[in-house]
Design goal:
This protein has 422 residues and is an alpha+beta fold. It contains 16 helices and 14 strands. The strands form two sheets. Strands 1, 4, 5, 6, 7, 8, 9, 10, 11, 12, 13 and 14 form a twelve-stranded mixed sheet that branches. A two-stranded antiparallel ribbon has the order 2-3.
């Protein structure tokens, strides 16, 4: 019977567990009002969409708007320019290594990918602010980044070879950095051709829900952020749950050679038990604050139905064998890592325990839940790796750990995967 079913149907439809379908209801005891579902389309900008979908709630409240979007393509433009500079600086730091070394090979693999992490997002907002989507709208290349990324990557690899040859010929560091600045001018031009030049300032006006007209005059992107987004970026910390033997709980970590703004804020994690992440996320939602999080979204996901459940598919019964890897082993042996960022905007409590979470995604509204996902709390345990929460939601002993020097992880560590996923 299993053979007959699977040879004629997709395995995930054959193994879809009816209980998971029934339990994945879009009813929640705690919900935050959100704007229309957004779509990152054919790009890897989930980290930008998740954060901007959080920030737009402040904008909607401040301007009395029912719906509003900030521009992911604006931050994407600067992210790629900054990543190009970050890459070229990394090349200058590694000229004494072979191109066949693991580090140089990793640097060359995907220097201007779309992906990123929370600290990288903060670097961009600190330096460039934010703008409304209508001020800097989507382009063909921001919605489908592959071709643009391909040509940028080709140029960056070409320039990596040039800089390494300059080093071999005893060029000075100032000489190589002067050449690097010329390279970045070309990167800017390519990005501007694909997306248009980002605004240094813009006129901003709108009509609120009551139809009243407002004119804010001319604003810079930084001024817009300061006026309409009520988030103190330095107040937030990234909690991770990575239960592998090499990462003790209660310690802080950073990932070498992973970032976007050279000299900017490095990636910084605090490893904690999963119950700490759960309690912190719950407390934020109870305070009407959304929660940015990173996870391994492809595991036990039924995309059309919008279900994330640790038992979405009864593969054990179908194959007649138990799949028993622990979360620790899935990470250690390459079966699980952070691949996607989204936003918690609700939860359902039963007997004062969270049983499911409301997830705002950025894949458009083409599923049975109009673009939202429902996450079972068991899935939270198994496949969620990171939440961004305020410092004051940390237990005292963990807050003290933030002052410690972080443990350095290799660039290819699974905890850096969200910033390098495709």
């Amino acid at each position: 019977i299993a053979r007959n079913a699977v040879t004629h149907n997709q395995i995930r439809e054959v193994a879809l567990d009816r209980d998971a379908v029934i339990e994945g209801r879009m009813t929640f005891s705690h919900e935050i009002e959100s704007g229309p579902i957004t779509s990152q389309k054919r790009s890897g900008r989930c980290w930008l969409f998740a954060a901007l979908n959080w920030f737009r709630l402040d904008c909607m409240e401040a301007m009395d708007l029912e719906g509003f979007e900030l521009s992911p393509s604006y931050l994407m433009f600067w992210d790629k320019l900054e990543k190009a500079n970050y890459f070229l600086e990394s090349i200058l730091e590694t000229t004494d290594e072979s191109t066949r070394s693991r580090l140089v090979s990793w640097l060359l693999d995907d220097p201007v990918d779309d992906a990123g992490q929370w600290d990288m997002f903060i670097n961009l907002v600190d330096k460039y602010g934010v703008v409304p989507k209508e001020v800097y709208p989507e382009s063909e290349s921001s919605s489908s980044t592959r071709v643009m990324n391909t040509y940028l990557t080709e140029k960056l690899r070409e320039w990596a070879g040039e800089l390494r040859r300059m080093s071999a010929e005893d060029a000075t560091l100032p000489e190589m950095r002067a050449r690097k600045e010329e390279m970045l001018e070309t990167v800017y031009r390519i990005l501007a051709i694909h997306n248009g030049e980002p605004p240094e300032s813009f006129e901003w006006s709108w009509r609120d829900e009551e139809g009243e007209f407002h004119d804010a005059g001319e604003l810079t992107p930084t001024a817009f952020f300061e006026r309409y987004v009520d988030v103190e970026l330095d107040d937030y910390v990234s909690l991770i749950h990575c239960p592998t033997p090499d990462k003790p709980m209660g310690a802080t970590y950073t990932v070498d050679h992973l970032g976007n703004v050279a000299g900017g804020r490095p990636i910084r994690y605090l490893n904690a038990d999963i119950d700490v992440l759960r309690s912190a996320a719950r407390a934020c939602l109870e305070d009407e604050h959304p929660v940015w999080f990173g996870c391994d979204v492809g595991k036990q996901l039924h995309r059309d139905r919008g279900i994330l459940d640790d038992e979405t598919f009864d593969i054990d019964a179908l194959y007649g064998t138990d799949f028993q890897m622990s979360k620790s082993d899935r990470v250690a042996y390459g079966h699980s890592k952070m691949t996607h960022a989204m936003l918690f905007t609700g939860m359902h409590l039963q007997d004062d325990e969270v049983v499911r979470w409301k997830v705002e995604n950025s894949w458009g509204d083409d599923n049975e839940l109009d673009g939202f996902l429902v996450m079972d709390d068991g899935w939270f345990d198994d496949y969620l790796f990171q939440v961004v929460i305020p410092h004051d939601r940390l237990p005292d002993e963990l807050r003290e750990a933030l002052d410690e020097e972080p443990i350095h992880l290799s660039p290819w560590n699974p905890m850096g995967a969200l910033a390098r996923c495709r």
